[in-house]
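Supplementary Methods S3. Complex input for the copper (II) ion-bound model.
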Amino acid sequence: MTTTTVPHTRYSRLNINRIGLWLFILSESGIFIALLAVRFYLEGTSRPEALNQTLGLIITAILLLSSLTAYRAETAIAQGDQAGFLRNTLATLILGLVFLAGVGIEWSQAFREFPPQSGFGRVFFAMTGMHAFHVLTGLILFGLLYFNGRRGAYSAESHWGVEAIVKYWHFVDVVWVFFYPALYLLS
Amino acid sequence: MKPILKGILWAVIGFTGGAGLLTLVRLALGMSLWDLEPAISVGYIFGLTGWLLGVGVWDYWARAWFGLPLKKFEANGLSRYFSFNLDHKVIGLQYLAVFFFMLLTGGLFAMLMRLELMRPGREFMDPAVYNQIMSLHGIFMIAVAVAVIIGSFGNYIVPLMIGADDMAFPRLNALSFWLTPLVPLLLLSSLFFGGWDSGWTAYAPLSVTNRTGQLFYNLAFMTLGLSSIVGAVNFLTTVLTKRAPGLTWGRLPIFVWSIIATAILSLLATNFIFVVLLLATLERIAGMAFFNPAGGGNPILYQHLFWFYSHPAVYVMALPGLGVVLEVIAHFSRKPLFAYKWAVAGFLGITALSFTVWAHHMFTTGMPESRTAFMFTTELISIPTGFIFLSALGTIWQGRLRLNTPMLFGLAVIVNFLIGGITGIFLADVPTDIQLQDTFWVVAHFHYTIVSTQIFGLVAAIYYWLPKFTGRMYSERLGKIHFWWMFVTFNTTFLPMFWLGLNGMNRRVAQYPAPLGDVNMWVSLNAFLLGASFAFFVVLIALAWVRGPRAVSNPWAARTLEWQTASPPPHDNFPREPKVVGAPYDYGVPDSTHAIVPAADSGND
Ligand SMILES: [Cu+2]
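Predicted complex, serialized as structure tokens:
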């Protein structure tokens, strides 16, 4: 008797993981859509003059740059370039930390000008806080990538962890692309 | 029990560490050292992490992230159910245990409410205590309705129905389960902090100014939401990627479609409740006035965000039950499911439309300009709902009905849900809703929709799949007694509530006008009988589980894949991968087959 073995699923583990990640990102975007809705519902398009525009622009640029280094880290490992991967992971980590430090400075100024208990302050702190929380988790994950990358855990053939965290990082970046104009530019 | 003890230990360490960390931060910022609610909130985030890591995430998953070898999983027999088990069949029964416990506890709260409502005056409890019990009953049952069928039978049956060996992400599956025991734990702990009195909807500004017990509601609901999202990702990925060869979308059993629709709703809507509860928590612990007008907030915003989740959530509660009903009715009518494609369109149509109707809960909150639009979209939903309904009726029509207990419960859902649907029109309609808002009409309508779909659906599912997960059969005679008992007392309890509502009896209040006393006495007595039917059900199922007669592997002669393997199924579900060659319900169609399951290799050929 001849039996053909049908593979248990037509999808590889990698593709199953990818679908799961995209669904998670889709769900997670609800958090940020809701926060944008809160911002416009409560505060319209108003924003205080006291916002530090220079700092806002700088941290935005830094975050965008970190998406580029994250992308380079992924391409590097996909080509088996361990040194390039580690270098770019480290760069992403540092840029992310600088972004968070920038948010910290922003917050310390905001506490004086428009504290969390004030009209604009509540949406400003809720939105930047939720975003910074996602940045922080992303940085912990990049730290893990660097730690594991140093002992050679990823290769050109197998680096789902890198791909997932880099995708997540791009998502966090895209969120900021919506949050930055909603907080800093509208009037 | 060892994993659970370890989880508790790590949770305590995490909680203490989190609260301690907050104290240090407060010290650094020069604030007062101790504030209860911030300490609980921050402590909980760390405590929750500790719990998950301790109960199994660390040993069987996270160690690999740090290059450490994973612990070998060794639990069998009963201890599998008390550990971080990855088998979807174990997880399904774990879900069933937690949420059945919540169902019974929530039922006890309902009994206490009916005890107080037997007479118009103040009888057994303080009105404030009544409100706490009412709130607990509400959220316990909401949690049950959101999670019990998809958690237990979604997990147990869906992978079997699609011919898979497990879910797409077994470890995430275990994670989403181990979040759920915290929900009843938090809700019951709220009683040590004064409980809360804002009902399951927890409207602001009350919910941002009342006692600390409210915080436990927030944390519990957020935890349940997290579990729902993780589960939804898993279900959708599983159905997308793990179907057996030949199982096309048009051959998918209808129960699987109902779980797909439910998972889409959970995936897209749940983060809105997460945000609204997070903001309410921030308002409580950090004075960020989002909702309280006294601080410049807007309470209507709370309602918008709350219902943008909670209306889709009522379909999260209704659709799995309707899926069970169509499934059962098709098998017990021995006919192809009538208008299969329209039923699928019904599930997906409800899913899409349910994001457009949320403000029908807000007709009396002062937004006259948009009421007509929401009335229109709400009444539009009756169209896809009608598809599902007609599919059920068309299947029964001229079928060779086998009136076993699961089928009886399936038919009961149709009757009760019809009453729920018709009485809902008066709430969707603005002029009548303004009169009926916040009366017992709403209570009756809601129970007719949600109890009939989710709870009657759950009971039907337990009877139907009991031989599958226990390998044993219940007593058909006792099952039929249970059916008539529960069906009759459900109706004698809730039908009079419509009349009470029309006569102006408000919900969520311990006292009511004296002329309504007799009817309330009747309702309470019937409610106690209805409650007793659940005790009977538990005994009946326990008896069958422990010493019922052995069931044959396919007692209903059903064609879907979960019945084409041993009961209970082996660890990997099927000896060899099944192949699907036809539609699932072609009973009576000549030469039709749904699936072929090759026997295990004998090793000789
Ligand atoms: Cu609704």
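Chain A is about 80% helix and 0% strand. Confidence is low (pLDDT under 50) at residues 1-8 of chain A.
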